[in-house]
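Trying the structure run again after the queue cleared.
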Amino acid sequence: MGLLRTVRRSGWLISGALALSLAATACGGGDSGGGSDGAGATPAAQVLGAPSPAEGAPVTIGLISASASDSVLSAQFQRIEQGMQMALKYANTYRGGIAGRPIALFICQGGETPAGTQDCANQMVNRGVAAVISPFTANGASVVPVLTAAKIPYVSLSGTSTEELTKPGAFSLTGGFSVGLAAFAAYAHDHGVRKMAMLATDGPAVLQAVNGIGGIVFRKAGVGFQTIAVPVGTADMTPQMQAAVKGGADAISMVGDLTFCTSWLQAYQTLNLDLPRYIINTCIDPTTLKAYKPVIAGSVMTATATTDTATTDATLYGAIARTYNSKVDPDPAVSASQSAGAITLLSFVNLFKGFTGDPTSAAITQQLRSAKNVPLFLGDGATYTCDGKAVPILPNVCSSEVQIGTVKDDGTVEDAKVIETTRLFTP
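Done. Tokens:
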């Protein structure tokens, strides 16, 4: 069967690159206003069920954001905050918050810079938050040491830095970019790729993950691997793409933000290449689909959210969106950045089912370390267990499964297969 082990599970497609600000930009749009139900949708009130409101003193959870910055990520973080806020309202009204107490979200604007995120980490400590949660950051190395020194747990949906993936007190609910690289390696092996070249943003955290983890998993999979660093802001990526081809690559991949992806797609198209291409879901944006659909269609990709809107969690997400933010598309695959925010918060809330104690930082850390098979929201059966066994060389990773498939011309993934990647990280 090759290195791929197919698991019967349709639904959530865990992103291999969410950690690096690589969730797909949402299309927005959406639904009829004010919490009303879209045509054919189950009434939101029926889906949400009976209220179970949280009461008492709030439990403050932190989020380090960049929605107020002038970076290219500001719009994406705005959407992430939208998704997290509407999920928070649902959790406080229908799920009893955390241990029956309402969740308060303290948002600090770090601007996705090392100095800004470190300052926010210090503010989290001064504020006395119980935990900090994050869909992703490129600056985990600046955040984690500050929080863990104060014994505040840091919970990322998908970590990428060494600190996020190995330092005690930090947790990555999914394998994120590391497991995504392993999925690329396994898929490439099973499809006859001899050597892959990855064009990557020239940043310390990104290159650390690409060179370190990529070198391990591609070697284990028996596929050659080359990293080509591309300076931030490079508009014409054809020289780097040409270097990859001249270096013998028979498959091309990338990791970077939406601007990076646009330049990568343009270079591939300009050179009229006909090589297998491996992309990340940041490339799936209305603008890129319109301009580069022939390049995107047929590429290989991992993805973040269920493509089946009939699953229980997807139906719930739609009801939450219609109830708490009618501007958000109720399809989690369309409102991908908002659903990333909701996934992060509600997967964290799922940790506390049956928990009756005081949700202090110490108690939350212990709960993370001891809980087994906690459902990932929008996971359609996927779970996380933070016992350090999912990826042996990365003890903070709580799940090693990832789905991967080919991209259709509408940006969705078809023929996805779940890959269990633990074996690619073992000696």
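The two ends are 21 Å apart (CA to CA). Worth checking whether this holds up in the mutant runs.
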